[in-house]
Design brief:
Blueprint: H1 59-68, E1 76-78, H2 89-98, H3 100-110, E2 112-116, H4 124-134, E3 136-138, E4 161-162, E5 174-177, E6 188-195, E7 199-200, E8 203-207, H5 208-214, H6 217-226, E9 228-235, H7 249-265, E10 273-277, E11 286-290, E12 297-299, E13 306-308, H8 312-315, H9 317-327, H10 335-339, E14 343-346, H11 354-366, E15 368-371, E16 378-382, E17 386-390, E18 393-394, E19 398-407, H12 410-418
Parallel strand pairs: 1-2
Antiparallel strand pairs: 2-16, 3-19, 4-19, 5-17, 6-16, 6-19, 7-18, 8-15, 8-17, 9-11, 9-14, 10-11, 12-13
Helix pairs in contact: 1-5, 1-6, 2-4
Length: 434
Amino acid sequence: MVKFGLPAVALAVGAASTAAFAPAAPASSRRAAAPVHMSSVAENPLAPLTVWGDRIPDILGSHKEAKARKMEFAPTIKASEIGLASDDVEGQLQYVKDHATEIKQQMVDNGAVIFREFDLMKEQPGFVKFYEALGMKTCLDPLHSVSARPTVDGDKNSPVYEAVNKESRKNFFIGMHNEFVGTRAPRAAAFVCFKAAETGGEFLIADGRQIFRDLSPELVEKLYDRDIRYSVMELPFFGWVDSLPEFARPGVMGVVKGLASFAINSKVDFDVDLQWGEGGYDNVKMLQARAPSQPPILVHPVTGEPHWFCNVHSHSSKLRKDREATYGAERFEDGASQINKSDMYFGDDGTISDADLEEMDRVTMKNVQYVKMTEGDVVLLDNYKCMHGRNVFDGTRKHGVAWFEGWEGEAEMKAAAANGQRSEAKEPAPFFAA
């Protein structure tokens, strides 16, 4: 979901100059010193462009094939089951280095790999050593150009970002999604637990291949034929327009929309279409920003398997409202939260029916795994095949995430897959725990 800070939309409501909407300064102009063993945000590239790939010529045929395909998802590596003590951090680091290729292949083949009982990753320096030993290539947070996500250690140049730990968001169930903003999506990510919440706060994962497989053919065909589109922001500041004389409203609305569109599109690297609405959450006149249409199903950039790549579970206003019955009302307590509200439509701006939304919700939740992480646990995931989310929680939660543009050996994996050398549904490597 695209999140805009208040400075990024101030001009749209006449509260700031155009400087507030200028694109973020290049990373090189903000370079700062960092410990030599730590990757630095200033050194990292932007998140890579999303690999949309070719259209699937026979979506129903691919859907039928997926139902017959065996799928393994998210194997676990436990230190105790590979002959290592939980406090043997040097042995753990060496293990990761020695098995880096196999681990990354399992991530690509099976969507995610879960690491448990590794003291190596209990603190940020060890976590960084872990993913560097794997040969993962860090990139900036995909939100970088529109909003600064907090870092775990508070250093703006840190490569490890907060993973939605704010107390004000503890009763907000973060729906299943792939991480992407507009035109950019990290290839992979590593989520780490530095402190587990006292209650709840599980990290959620789901296999996009299985979600695609379990949707009805009718819904798959409808969604793929029409594509989908997100609204990524609402500007609920225009109730005053209704108090203007009727003859003056069209002209004022045109000027306001033009200024807001210029300001927002100068900030992001994808086209945002602003549309007037007559309600929104607060029942006032608003401008709703909609991203370009996109396919909800992609072919994996390495393995070529079709998989669900659609953030309806986190973006749909209806599904979030439905979850309030279980978790309580969303706590939109600050100005930015009042802006960062989303929804989903067909690519032609048509409304998706409640029945279709409920089927997508049901199939998604059927495939969700709740991963209760403890200190040092890591989930390494392929951001295309594997969706993620977060359960509600009580207490103090400190989880982090590092984003990756790719990894050492990715090109070789692609070449092997293209040459048919990767076996479908092969058994996990023997060093993985069941």
